Amino acid sequence: MDQIGNEILRIHQFLPLSRANGPGARAVIWVQGCSLGCPGCFNPETHSFLGGELAPVKDLFQRIISLEGTIEGITISGGEPLQQRGPLLTLLRLARQQTSLSILLFTGYTWEEVQRMLDVEELLSCIDVLIAGRYDASQRLAHGLRGSANKTVHLLTNRYTMDDLQSVPPAEVIVTAEGEVVMSGIDPVKY
Known about the structure:
alpha/beta
């Protein structure tokens, strides 16, 4: 793992087990920082680039590896994951090369914007499902892992089908070992 170096990913939260953020049991990483500013975003606390936790990629990867056998995949959300493309790509590359875990990534960038990014071929080769597009409150959907109807789903491997995504519950409430209540999913309960 010496190829990781000292890369750091700024994260908002790491959830070791979720069933509402992609097919099956998944670890979820919400990155911290987003400049897209979608009106009505339900994760505004992830927007500041100064908040969250500075997580070395090697440590995040170790947390993920420790869950192998209990999860089938990793979901990356935000904030905006693609605004930390360098360390994110390192993490995804390691996951793809050293595990059999699936990878689902949410981005606020459109498919066309993603296609113009540097290293896009390698990035997409590390992802099974990409859900792309800015949240649009006027087209709120909150189903099938899409917050709004304008978001596009890209099945980049044959690992999942649209039916798999449609069967994911829209929300969940989790009480962590530390007693923290986490409300998650594409249509989380607000309190």
